[in-house]
Amino acid sequence: MTTVSTRITNELLSQLNEEIAVQLVSQVPLVGEVARYTIDSGGKRLRPILLLLSAGSLGCKDRRAVQLAAAIEFVHTATLLHDDVVDSSTVRRGKQTANERFGNAAAVLVGDFLYSRAFQIMVDVGESRVFRIMADATNDISEGEVLQLSNVKNVDLTVDSYFEMIRSKTARLFEAAAMLGGIVAGGEHGVISDFGKYGAHIGTAFQIVDDILDYDGSEGEIGKKLGDDLAEGKITLPMIHALEHGSSEDVAKIRAAIFADGAADLDSVVDIFRRLDSLEYSRRLAKLEINSAENIISSLPKSPYKDCMVELAANSLSRIS
Question: For the domain 3-320, what is the CATH code?
Answer without folding.
Answer: 1.10.600.10
